[in-house]
Amino acid sequence: MNIAPQWPGHLLLMRTVQNILMRISFLLSMIVLVQCRQSEKPTEFWIKSEQQPLLIKLKEGKVNYIRCYNLDSLTSEWPLRYPVFKFINGGDINQDGNEDLMVGVIKATRRDSIARKRLFLFQIKNKIIIPLWLGSSVSHPLEDFISYKNDSVTTIRTIEKEGNDRYLVADYTWRDFGLNFEKYIKRDLTLDKAGKIMNQLN
Question: Residue 79 in contact with residue 64, Cβ under 8 Å?
Answer without folding.
Answer: yes
